[in-house]
């Protein structure tokens, strides 16, 4: 008889995370890994001289012009703009996928890793509702019904107010996600009237959450595909 | 930004311990990187240039704790002339330099700083140079205004021209380096040539030396974008350029001059201020923002008392005038109503905002993008058929590319990849598959049925599926065209490159060509898993005979619980037959043993296998199958 095979750990994690958000009415939208400069940076108000745009941090593809798909997306937030061309608000969606950073790798950094972003746009969607969503999300995804989360101000060009989200884990606060209310200029870039529409967005690294949930110290196993690991999922 | 509590205390009484203080700054958005004694090291986000100073952080602390901030009254009664008499100063490009404030001080002695100054400099994490340089540095840390001191005799021809550079002009800075400039860098020229790389680093010629007697003190306002471009072009980031880039308070240059003069007069007996000047081309436009307090509730979902809101604005220096709010000169991050709402939220404390239910509505967004669900259904199908999913690197190396014999023109290459391993985007999923086969040789005897779904780039991005097995037969059913199945055997470049040892078969196609399935099963994560070591594992098989009513799961759990080095247990056979005795069956398992700290010796493994057999015998009356 045949034994079942196994999923890659990230596949399981992403699907469980998506299921949690589907309960709250979010649905999945995907986008290309090779993005345009507009969706990855300009759309999100990342200034032309922002260090994130340097070749030291970002994989630009040689020989491709600005108007083309010429950058490996550095964050899943890049899907926001694409998604909104196909959706009418009010809407809620979640965007999982691979992201890329041109930086030296170490125990906790890889050039290729995964992020999950979520965005909700409506006429009266507020920060308190985002806090509710994040509470549900982290409690379930990290399998900790009593998990506490903490918000504190932080700066991202595509949200205002912007904040980082930390979770209380093993007696320590660990920063896990970035979040905030979608910046009115980004709402405008979506083709919507910012006087009428508002919403929240949050997102962060998936491997990092996996490492926290399972108490592992390095990001290496996720691309290694050691059958000892994959066959446990 | 190093914040000594003793310095903070000069602006606002500190009523908290270092640890409590760090917590307060964290709640305001300034992460503490470390606390060393009575000095906090805070991370300042790039939008808050005003907080790269003790004064800026004092404003935040005073506002949060509702304490008054000691006002800066240094300039009261001081006369500033519209230009300098001793040196003729001209600004050629007023967009590059909107304000140039200074003073000429005579009869100085350059010497090591007093112990008090040395202590202050040290707490800011800087090196003590001499009394004058230390004072300019301390003023910069206090007020956030970069300062510079010139030796007056080093300024030739009694004139200074502040202008933008031409391409390839050169200047020797006080670090003794010769910098070749790009067009537009801000420089100061005197009668003999370029003598200052404005806003970044002073020139060598007029720098402060032990022989210096008379100085020109500078507190200027240079354009942040130009400073940023120049610093980046030259790879020269200094404490001064860092502050200019992030925005300084242009209204505060005279305060900086006065603070420096006061400190000089304390350090150097007999120092004389011969003149003060302020060349000011600042525009008079104010940054005004419309604000409606009702929008706080709308955006944040919390009721915040209007008195609190008005109080926050007043304490942050945001003044209300004719229905609008005026942004203070030191803030470069406030433009729209949402920015003001964030100020209120910060001072209110984000963690005080209570969650509001965000239940599912009847929003219909299913069906917008089916690709995720389609791919999941295909994954379900493969896993049920005994395949294990892999997820491999998006990049391949030069060597991988050579092995593939593909058209280089269709390959995508990143600009300046940090590693040679990242020279090409993968044009197919074959390289990744070969790599994973080579890294899991220990697993070969269990069979290797693997699949991957992922993006390839050749040159267009496409979502592909790859399937691999040691048996061609396994793959035959997935394609009508049997020629699509590749044999990766000993004549294949990748077989040799990855030293594969065993031929595998491989099939790759566009996911869109793969027959759709409709398996809606969703996934859950296991409660825990065994970490995997970097050492090769040992695999053993075990076959036992047990009563029919005992489940494979019971035995599997028992085997796993025997020892923590048992990483993986997989059933590979279950067979009911009377030949094992009445009501008996045979069960067979692969066991993978793996120690995080060492390569396992066979005697360790033997001992564990023996323990497994004994346990199964005691608990389930299981007998080893001969």
General description of the model:
The complex is a heterodimer of chains A (233) and B (626). Chain A has a single domain (9-230), classed as 2-Layer Sandwich (BirA Bifunctional Protein, domain 2), CATH 3.30.930.10. Chain A is 27% helix and 28% strand. The longest helix of chain A has 15 residues, at 127-141. Chain A has eight helices and nine strands. Chain A is an alpha+beta fold and 233 residues long. Chain B has 626 residues and is of the alpha+beta class. Helix content of chain B is 29%, strand content 24%. Chain B contains 18 helices and 28 strands. In chain B, the strands form eight sheets. In chain B, strands 4-7-10-11-12 form a five-stranded mixed beta sheet. A five-stranded mixed beta sheet of chain B has the order 18-21-22-24-23, sandwiched between helices. Chain B has a four-stranded antiparallel beta sheet with strand order 6-13-5-14. In chain B, β10 and β11 form a beta hairpin. Chains A and B meet through α1, β1, β4, α4 and β6 of A and α2, α6, α9, α11 and α12 of B.
Give a summary of the structure in a few sentences.
The complex is a heterodimer of chains A (233) and B (626). Chain A has 233 residues and is α+β, with helices and mostly antiparallel strands.
Query: Can you name the CATH architecture of chain A?
Result: 2-Layer Sandwich
Radius of gyration of chain A: 18 Å
What is the fold-level CATH name, i.e. the topology of the largest domain in chain B? Phenylalanyl-tRNA Synthetase, Chain B, domain 3
Q: According to CATH, what is the topology of chain A?
A: BirA Bifunctional Protein, domain 2
Please identify the top-level CATH class of the largest domain in chain B.
Alpha Beta
Query: How many beta strands in the DSSP annotation of chain B?
Result: 28
Major sheet of chain B: 5 strands, mixed
The total of beta strands of chain A comes to 9
